Amino acid sequence: MVPNLDIDQLKTFLAIADTGSFTRAADEVHKTQSAVSMQMKRLEDTVGLSLFIRDGRGVRLSREGERMVEQARKLAGLNDDIMSAFTKPELSGTVRLGTPDDYADLFLPEVMARFARSHPRVTVDVECLPSGRLSELIASGQLDLSLVTFCGKAPEGDVIRREELVWVTSQRHAAHSLDVVPLATADASCSWRKLATAALDKAGRKYRIAYTSPNRLAIDAAVLQGLAVAAMADICVRPGMRVLKPSEGFPSMGAFDIGLLFKAGKPAPATMALSQHIRDSLGANSALRAAAE
Prior knowledge:
Layout: H1 7-19, H2 22-29, H3 33-47, E1 52-55, E2 58-61, H4 63-87, E3 93-99, H5 101-118, E4 122-128, H6 131-139, E5 145-150, E6 158-170, E7 181-185, H7 191-203, E8 207-212, H8 216-224, E9 230-233, E10 241-243, E11 255-262, H9 269-282
Parallel strand pairs: 3-4, 3-5, 7-8
Antiparallel strand pairs: 1-2, 5-11, 6-9, 6-10, 6-11
């Protein structure tokens, strides 16, 4: 007989994957560290695999653990969807959601599909704009909730994911080898554009703004056709693109945070429910990047 997985153990496992630490995960799931360790031992016994690699510095996910993350998130999410459908009052109303289009095609399909199954009577109005503009709409109360990029400043909302900003070029072309690098970017208010140009200025690398568009697909097209180089989140890199290295003259731009902003006042239940679905989808990491404390 196939053994049954314990949902509580899976949620603890996901908390470790998301926080990078047994200690922080214990705080997240409101358990002692010893209880978390015991749960992970039982989970490993159930699946018959070692999900962690333990060494003198701490612990990190094994290859099997990395494979487990996606499947565990699906099962835990399905459990929550079922429980929400049968144990919570049915929500209704409208949530005005903002997101940069960089993230819309990556995250929204899964988020919206899961949310619609859990809360079919809630309407979600989506506005795709740059993070700076979305912050303004949140401040003025024109949006209820927004997914935004935090770059170079203290986050004013809830951080839910951290990503690397990388340089990309076409795999089939060599725009990156030109003496004056052509860049494809959003407008001057774009946080990624500011980080990219600052990094090139510091490195003394000549560049020009060759293509400007608020639409991520237009920027992607310029890169894929070999017309320009662009800076984007590692998660946004598409097939046909190649990540450039510092050894090729493109300096590191560091990492940035992705988070949520809420309009002033107490969020409506539907807004909170949608924000949780976003957290569940974006909180995934392919590996445990930090050692346990």
